[in-house]
Every structure is written in C-alpha cells, then in structure tokens.
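ARCHIVE CARD
SHELF: 3
SLOT: left
DATA:
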Amino acid sequence: MAEHNELGEIGEQLAIDYLLDKGYKICERNYRYLKAEVDIIAQKENTLIAVEVKTRTSNYFGNPEDFVTKKKIKLLVSAIDFYVTKRNLDVNVRFDIIAITLEKNTHKLEHLEDAFLYF
C-alpha cells in the first residue's frame, strides 16, 4: 500500500476515534457516489455530518484543511444529497473537516464544524 494511503487510513481512524469519543454515531466510512468519496458520514442527534479528513505530516505547504478544493466540495455535496434522498432521511446536514497533522509520535487534530461556510 502506498505511504499516502496508509497516512490517510491512520488519519481516518484518528478522526473516527475522536468523533466516537464526542458522542457521534458513525454511519458510513468511505461512502462512494459516482466520482465522490465521503470519508466519514456521522450523525449526532438530528444532524447528519459529512466529514472530510485531511492528514499531513507537516504544515510546510499549508494546513491540511487548505487542501479541500471547490471541486471536492461540489462532489461531497452531491454525494450527501444522494445519500439523504435515497434513504429518505429527515435530517439537518453539515459538512465538517477534520484536519490532522502527524508529527513523530504525536498528532494534532482540529475539528472544523460547518467548514464550507469558510470557503
């Protein structure tokens, strides 16, 4: 497995552990719709949360959340729209980013709720 794939899997597991600890229910992991992949779909109360996880080994080229593109946002929105419609869910929807920087034997995790409001 490529090193960047392993890094992504480590980051996603850290994000899932964090969300579970905060009381979120994990509904899906790596949900695919057409060309979109939603890293994590979680739920807390009546809110469905699409979580994009970005993991980096340093902030040298920018913060992890800076790598979520407008194209990626459009894909995530379409995937979640399909997910909600297909399951006939009556929920609020939110898009979050969990930005993780892994450094040596530690990590920094930042949870940006309603992240697309900032784009």
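SLOT: right
DATA:
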Amino acid sequence: MPATAQPTRRRRGRPPSVPLDQWICWCSIPIFYLLFGLIFVVLTRVMPPPRPDATTAQIVTFFQDNAIGIRIGFALLVAIIGFTAMANGLIAFQIKRMSVSPVFAYAYIGALAVGAVPGCLFASFAFVTATFRPDRDPEILRLLYELGLLSFVGSLGCFATQCTVLALAIFLDHHRIFPVWLAYISLWMVVTEILAGPVFVFESGPLSWNGSISFWLGTAIFVGWEFSMIILLRRAIARRVGEGEHAHPPRHESTRAER
C-alpha cells in the first residue's frame, strides 16, 4: 500500500491532531445525548413533561399507555448513565489546564455527580415503580408521577453550581482554553436553573414544570450550551496538541513543575 494512503485514511475518522483517549471521550458525548433524547422523548414520554394539573384518571392512563416504553427506556438509561462521567471528566480535564485552581475541576465533577441523582435517576425509578405493578392505588401513581417530575425539572441547585463553577473558571483563566462567551451562556444556564424553582409552587402556566419559562426556556439554552461545548471541546483538544502540549507529560517534567 502506498505510503500516502495512510494520512487519507486517518482524516476520515479521528483527526490526526487529537489523542485517541480524548477522542474516545469526546465521541461518547454526542452518542450519549442522542440516546438520552431517544429515552426521554420517544420511549418514556417524559420530555416534554406531561401536565402537572392532570387528573388522577389521566395520570393512570399515561402510565398504562407508556408502561413498556418507560420500562425499556429507563432500563437503557441506567445502563448508559455512567458515560456522562467521560464527558464530565473531559471538561474537568480542560478546566485543569486553565490558570485556576484544580478545585474548580473537582467542584465541577462533584456538582454533576450529586445532580445526577435527583435530576435523572430519581425520576426514572419513580416512573418505573409506577408501571411495575399496574394494579396500584391510583393515588400512589399520582404521588410517583408528581415526585418524579418535580425532581426531574426542579433539581436546580447542583446544576446551577456546575455552571457557576465553569463560568468562573473561564473568566479567571488567562490561557483562554474556552472563549469568554461560553461563560456567559453558562451564566444563562444558572438563570434558567433558578427559574425552575417556581415549579414547586405553580401547577399550571409558564412557571409550572412544563411551562414556557421553567422548562422550555431552560431546555433551549441547555441545547445551545451542549452544542457549543461539544464543538469547543473538540477545538480545545486539537489546539492543545497543536501548541505542542503533551496529553501525558513525562513524569520528571510534571515533578519539576510541581517543585
């Protein structure tokens, strides 16, 4: 095979400037969110959220009509939820490259690790429990319905902390690993998380858990933030290697730097 054939083949897959380990982590992000959308939108019908002012009879019908999708979808979620650690780890890795304390990276990971429980897993277990035995008391089904959706939409604190940490790290960074405009989008994410607080009060309208402000505005900004992060992570990884940095610096160099 001619020697010139190899570079052409590499360009079709992983860009030659991106280390294989970081490329694998980066590729897992769009794959995960594609499956995430399939689970929550198509299979379980949790997004967009069903109405908070639904009657007990409507809630029972919802679980009956979507029982198979809820079980299959949330079983798939439990199987893949750990892959978020690769995305979070890759972002934390970029934060550690910034001219800020590594505490920011650890705080970013910690906030998301805690937030995954009320913001994702708790809702899934509540909905699966509701469909596991179809002969449950309808009032118990209503309880699980409200508990799951209040947790799913209203778990604002951990994700607000995550975005605050990222925004502060970007503002304080002198290396410009990420552009400053990403910090401003992250602050908008914090605003939308705060606006999710009223879901604990309102049962209808724009501030309810399916409302235009509490849910749709936050979802739109999150989608924009996620697309931006995927693109900027790819650029940050490539730029790091292009500038001559090593993905894994020699041990004697890192020890010398610490001293």
